């Protein structure tokens, strides 16, 4: 019996059809994190205007739709919506505004040349955990219900063959008849 299974919004309709009880919780986060405030790794990030422009150019609602299938809440914070440390008043601080982003880039001296642009990987944790749990369950079933019984049966069969390795009198007689028929009935068969 499975008491808990991680899923994603794509599976919600199927869960509802099966009559499963579901609970919605944040299981992942995707967004833009700028950690190089001094420009040590990428010089343009040393400019506050460039960092602000990136924030204005980042469309959190579009990311939510693409990565989270629309499930969740678009926020510019890494803290889950409704949590104790999430401050909803901050969500409009860098509302998506391409014109404002262009204005800030012009103020910073034009479009920056990012010689080293390596956005981090976006990983949706829910589907990953679902796949991991499914793999572990499948591995358990295959090992304990297929591999182990097969190996046990194979060992029993090999032991039985070893015990029955010496032929009985009937088998010896049948071999002699076979050999005689092959030779065309010429004399006694050699065993």
Structural class: mainly alpha
Gap between N and C termini: 60 Å
Radius of gyration: 35 Å
Q: What general form does the structure show? A: elongated
Tell me how many strands there are.
Answer: 0
Q: What is the share of helical residues?
A: 40-55%
Largest sheet: none
CATH superfamily of the domain at 29-123: Dipeptide-binding Protein, Domain 3
Could you report the average pLDDT, rounded to the nearest whole number?
78
**Multimerization status:** single chain
Give, in order, the helices and strands.
Answer: HHHHHH
Uncertain segments are none
CATH architecture of the domain at 29-123: Roll
Number of helices: 6
- At the first level of CATH, the class of the domain at 29-123 is Alpha Beta
CATH topology of the domain at 29-123: Dipeptide-binding Protein, domain 3
Note the beta-strand portion.
under 5%
Characterization of this structure:
There is one protein chain. The protein is mainly alpha-helical. Helices cover 47% and strands 0% of the residues. The protein has six helices and no strands. The chain has helices at 12-17, 48-57, 60-68, 98-107, 125-163, 169-183. It is elongated and about 110 Å long. The protein starts with 11 loop residues before the first helix and ends in an 8-residue tail after the last helix. The model has no long low-confidence stretch (mean pLDDT 78).
What's the SSE blueprint?
Elements: H1 12-17, H2 48-57, H3 60-68, H4 98-107, H5 125-163, H6 169-183
Helix pairs in contact: 2-4
What's this, in brief?
With 191 residues, the protein is an all-alpha fold. Helix content is 47%, strand content 0%. The two termini are 60 Å apart.
